[in-house]
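We were asked to recover a plausible sequence for a given structure. The inputs and outputs are reproduced exactly as logged, with field labels preserved.

PROBLEM: sequence recovery
POSITIONS: 213
GIVEN STRUCTURE:
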């Protein structure tokens, strides 16, 4: 058979239906995961009674908005990491603003807080609740996101998984922050960050295990 004939024959064959875009699957994975996290949140925690009033304070609002920003940027980056050759773009630079702003708030709070109260605000009273809650609320979101990212082709599965972990932890932390009554950046800039880092590590492990191709 001639080459031209073979090409014509292949062109006549119907192509298989394309798989749903990874981004679409990721949105669904995050949505289903968030529903699971929300159920856990409502069963075990729930919003603080004075949430809307406290949100009028920008420092308190920041403990919800910063994790949300991390979620959005890390989600974009995780989707790009599963597309070989895709540029990371501005999101790769903007994502660093989140820890920088958290560090700036920590420094501000350290200076503004009387020396005798700094350790009290730093330790708070809910570390045993805060860290496990962030990690547990992250799990269903991370599971849904990892499942969706398997449709992609990451060159570095562990990095893609770590970014998925950051995104999941960001959303879970924002949710948890609506329950938490620790309003000092000395507390939340430290302990929220540790919970997020742990979930990012879990995401890296999950990526190395389930995102290989």
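RECOVERED SEQUENCE:
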């Amino acid at each position: 058979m001639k080459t031209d004939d073979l090409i014509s024959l292949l062109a006549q064959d119907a192509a298989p239906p394309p798989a749903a875009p990874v981004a679409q699957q990721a949105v669904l994975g995050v949505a289903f995961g968030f529903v699971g996290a929300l159920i856990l949140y409502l069963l075990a925690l729930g919003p603080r009674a004075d949430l809307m009033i406290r949100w009028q304070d920008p420092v308190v609002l920041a403990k919800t908005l910063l994790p949300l920003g991390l979620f959005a940027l890390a989600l974009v980056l995780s989707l790009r990491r599963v597309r070989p050759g895709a540029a990371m773009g501005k999101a790769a630079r903007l994502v660093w603003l989140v820890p920088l702003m958290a560090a700036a708030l920590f420094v501000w709070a350290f200076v503004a807080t009387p020396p005798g109260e700094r350790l009290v605000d730093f330790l708070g009273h809910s570390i045993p609740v805060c860290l496990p809650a962030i990690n547990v609320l992250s799990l269903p979101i991370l599971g849904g996101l990892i499942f969706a990212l398997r449709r992609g082709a990451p060159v570095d599965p562990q990095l893609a998984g770590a970014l998925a972990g950051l995104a999941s932890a960001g959303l879970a932390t924002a949710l948890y922050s609506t329950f938490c009554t620790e309003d000092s950046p000395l507390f939340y800039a430290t302990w929220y960050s540790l919970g997020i880092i742990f979930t990012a590590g879990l995401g890296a492990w999950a990526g190395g295990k389930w995102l290989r191709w």
